[in-house]
Design brief:
It is a single chain. With about 325 residues, the protein is mostly helical. The chain is built from eleven helices and two strands. Strands 1-2 form a two-stranded antiparallel sheet. A hairpin with a 2-residue loop joins β1 and β2. α1 runs parallel beside α6 and α3 crosses α5. The longest helix has 29 residues.
């Protein structure tokens, strides 16, 4: 992956997460107290800086194959989750992410909430801002650290992520309203494609199966995911229109996420995502890759086929009434 691909991937992913965090921080500031929201945001950013500074050097000490395996797997789970949601939104099976609607909902809840005044000002606004920025920021930190560590360019990745966050912060400061004109679903589509591409590329290398085209393999992998997405959007759009014409209920049947405590929920979201059958296919493909490593020079392409087929089957299944 060259510097341009690294910068574009990290910047877009960081931009999307920052926009979502900004929406909640703005609601906390307008609905409750600006100083408290700002303090919560600054503390969350400081926490993320410490995490990145601490984990960055440690990741450079991890063996390359193990790093490829771990980062590839998490990237694939993460990227396919974004890609799946983008496909469902583009086809009409899932509502587009409306930052204005989210802002108004958060604002209404904030105005009715009660909170004690403390040394941080309004504790409710402070806590909400801190949690929003920290949770969205952890995803940014993951992308920054993982992409940067594999290429040995953590500094470039960190500066790119920081630049994206600063762009959103400055826009929020000057506009003081949600960034509703940001084409969030389009960006998530692109980021989902890119992260899924690198995910499958790295995870197969981590299991000992190296791509016979080397880095050039990224091109057909990306095109495979792009073609998959294009075909699925067209097919699901037709299915959506058919359901509406017949007066049927339009819904998606994602697998239920278990109720866990905060820590376990965070780990589950990273390792499994929002649909465990899809994650099961990924882990099965991973095990398959381990067993057949070095058995055939084309095994990595078979793994790609399993992931693409499994993802397609799952999306068709969860949208079938």
């Amino acid at each position: 992956m060259n510097d341009i691909a690294l910068i574009v991937s990290v910047f877009l992913a960081s931009l999307v997460e920052a926009v979502e965090a900004l929406t909640i921080v703005l609601a906390a500031g307008i609905g409750r107290d600006w100083k408290s929201a700002q303090r919560g945001t600054l503390l969350a950013i400081a926490t993320l800086v410490i995490v990145i500074a601490a984990l960055g050097p440690l990741l450079t000490q991890v063996p390359v194959d193990l790093l490829h395996l771990i980062v590839g797997l998490l990237s694939l789970v993460f990227g396919l989750q974004w890609l799946r949601k983008a496909i469902l939104r583009s086809s009409g099976f899932k509502a587009l992410h409306d930052e204005e609607l989210i802002f108004e909902k958060e604002l209404a809840e904030l105005k009715t909430a009660t909170a004690k005044k403390t040394f941080v000002g309004d504790w409710y606004a402070f806590t909400l801002s801190y949690k929003a920025v920290l949770l969205e920021g952890i995803e940014v930190a993951f992308i920054v650290l993982s992409f940067g560590a594999i290429q040995g360019k953590i500094f470039i990745a960190s500066m790119t992520g920081l630049a994206a966050v600063l762009v959103v912060i400055l826009a929020g400061v000057f506009l003081r309203k949600p960034l509703t004109r940001v084409p969030e679903n389009a960006m998530k589509f692109v980021v989902g494609l890119v992260i899924s591409t690198f995910g499958i590329f790295w995870v197969t290398q981590g299991t000992g199966n190296f791509w016979n085209l080397s880095d050039l393999a990224l091109i057909p992998i990306f095109l495979s995911f792009a073609a998959l997405s294009f075909v699925l959007v067209l097919f699901l759009k037709q299915r959506h229109a058919k359901y509406l014409a017949a007066g049927n209920k339009v819904e998606t049947k994602l697998a239920k996420t278990p109720k866990l405590n905060v820590v376990l929920q965070f780990i589950y979201d990273f390792l499994v995502g929002d649909d465990w059958p899809t994650a099961l296919v990924l882990y099965a493909a991973l095990g398959f890759s381990f067993v057949l490593q070095n058995a055939n020079s084309l095994i990595q392409w078979l793994i790609l086929a399993v992931v693409v087929t499994g993802t397609s089957f799952r999306l068709i299944r969860i949208t079938k009434n």
